[in-house]
Design brief:
It comes from Chitinophaga parva. This is DUF2157 domain-containing protein. The protein is an all-alpha fold. Among the domains are: 151-285, no CATH class; 299-334. It has 14 helices and three strands. Strands 1-2-3 form a three-stranded antiparallel beta sheet, with no helix packed on it. Strand 2 and strand 3 (376-377) form a beta hairpin. The radius of gyration is 29 Å and the shape is flat.
Amino acid sequence: MIAYHKQQLDNRAIQEDVVAAFRRKAITAEEKQAIINAYPTRGYSPHFAIRVGLFVLTVVIAMCVLGIGALCMMSGLDSEAALRSLLIITGLVAYGGMEFYISQGHFHSGVDDALRWTSAGLLLAGMAPFERDTEATLLAVSCVLAGLFTLRTADPLMAVASFLSLLGSVLFSLHQDIAGQSTLPFTGMALSAIVYSAMRYLHHKPACRYYKGVFPWVLTASLLTFYMAGNYAVAAAMTGNPYEGNAPAHMPFYWTFTALVPVVYIFLGIRFKDAILLRTGLGLVAAAIFTVRAYYHALPLEWALVIAGAVLIFISYMLIRYLKTPRHGFSDEPGEDASRFTKLQLESLIISQSMQAPAAPQDHFDFGGGSGGGGGAGGTF
């Protein structure tokens, strides 16, 4: 299903893990180089700055092609069908260009990235409904398109767009029904929890190893949407306006949720050594503080920001000093997230590189300073 060459993706993953193992001084430089030579990677994947330039240039060229097509069809663009046809055809051409450049070895070079997003945008614009109150349909189409592009290219941003479109489509569908508006926060929490559980289940599956860059993004997005769905301010916006006296139902629940969920994230992140949960929880502590302050003013905003920043800097400094020496499985060093499948591969590669066959001994025996073998001695003594 994925467009990129699978063997090249496997080789890239092996090389990344080999470099990470070398940084941890788990292997020698000779072993690292031997494995890299045994599993080479080909293709075009330039520096980030060059990727950005190629991305912008490709988008400009695609827009020029769209403009030329619009000029050629100017007389027929007065109808909606003609405009949709132009957008869809241009989107398909951009998709074909993406497939061509991928087949030529481009791996997130900027060109294939730009063609991917251009194609998705043009196809969505060509298929999107133009009528009012069709947000749910538009987001559903966006979810399907982004999901297909994710399966084809393993783009993490496409995966996040697909998840957010799915969530938005469901919530907009419920929002159109008066009875469903009160269930919006719980629906958002339930859908986010389901997506998070599914991503956790698939994350370490060997069959999904080509999408390992997608899972952290979707996991983080689902954790954020789970919290935002139950945050008091968001729940108030979805189900009522507390400033006008219409506070959302279950108000104590939402306040408790707003305050406790970041703490639960941090606890679970420490308990299971999950960096995604830990970092998300730390970030949401600030969101909880700002939510409380929006309704209960204890300090001026400037002082609140200064105090919160000083406290976070102090805590970070003390943790870095404390974890300079690893304690209880924690360290201030960045972790390496290699899958179980790749770790097993890497271990076998290191063993195979370390256990080279010994050189065959010479088939002769020596007599003092000379040599002999078979039926007689040699000519040196």
